[in-house]
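Divalent metal cation transporter
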Amino acid sequence: MKKRNWSVLLGAAFLMATSAVGPGFLTQTTVFTQQLAASFGFVILISIVLDIGVQLNVWRVIAVSERRAQDIANMVLPGLGAFISFLIVLGGLAFNIGNVGGAGLGFNVLLGVSPEVGAVMAAAMAVAVFLVHEAGKVMDRFAQVLGFLMILLIVFVAFTSAPPVGVALTKSFFPDEVDVLAIITLVGGTVGGYITFAGGHRLLDAGIKGKESLPEVNASAVSGITVASIIRIFLFLAALGVVSKGLVLDPANPPASVFQLSAGVIGYKLFGVVMLSAAVTSVIGSAYTSVSFLKSFSRKIQAYENGVIIVFILVSTVIFVTIGQPVRLLILAGALNGLVLPLTLGVMVYAAYKPKIVGTYRHPLLLTVFGVLVVLVMAYLGGYTLVQQLPKLFAL
């Protein structure tokens, strides 16, 4: 495989992985570990298998059709691509506000500045990536460097917390309890919303497409899930080491507690680095992927893609600094995001069997079964979540 291709494949994998590993990912993993203890290992194991199935379904269809997700959706049903793009962009904007806030918190821990000032500093970092001529290559390398940094720091904290690894390994296959909602939450948090398409669209933009590229696409998709999973597993072990000793996590900031209780003041500063890295890479991934869903609808957006991405980042930052995290928008986007994965994955699985979209390509039956299973379960839970959240939206 060419050196250039390896760089692009790793870049796409890390873009997907670091898009998934945001502030919510860190908190989610810590809280579930606190609730399920070592049995959370089983949840992680099952979610990894499902995540790989989702990614392979989506990335392979994007590659063989040589089209972005919204264009594939429009071929399945005219107008469907525009609807999906609306959901993706709305969710991307809402979660980017949270990502900017998380980055601000990272700078707050590291430098003592206010979260608002930290958010502006983080936005400047993200914007700088898209000011250079070859922004795609810089984005790839940025995601790789910060991704590796997060892995190293979380592995260190997991080591210092001295978790019961043997118990965690045993319970990963023989859990005391199985929390289905936790599994679905992890799947949605790792490959839900815009995250599903971050790497697939990046490969398409880099020219890696067609049936002949499927081995590379498979490798990149699995690598992306592997990176995100390594981070989740070691964060789980770090948190398990803390809770297994009977230590209590701060409910206001559970992941920060894990780092601080494991490694003291140094651990707390390391949390700042991890939070900043997770949040900034998620800001970049969210902005890039959201704008990629708009490129089909305007040649000007395609011509000035980097400028539109910068505006997307700046709007997210301005909203956070002036309003904070708008509750209505976050509730609505969160509820709608529960429907994005089953809708988009369902479209991709259906498209995999349409010759006008994929030509002579034959989709593996196992991937279809995985895809349909995830669509049905996520559609049910997504609808349930939407029904639960809408009364809260109107009550505000």
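thats it. The chain has a mean pLDDT of 90. Residues 3-326 form a domain with the Hydantoin permease fold (CATH 1.10.4160.10). bye
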